[in-house]
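Morning run. Coffee first, then this:
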Amino acid sequence: MSTGTKVRMLHPEWDDTAVQAEVAAIIAETGAAMDPVGVFPFDTRQQQNGQ
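And here it is:
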């Protein structure tokens, strides 16, 4: 799942500009270009289940 999708799930009221700004901030903070395991930062269910 992309960072943009996760931001939209958490903030469905945000417009595209706000979502893009948040995604850019997340990428700048983490130094990540992508989420290779699909769980950063919001979906911890897989981590808790040991998957």
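The radius of gyration is 12 Å. Good start to the day.
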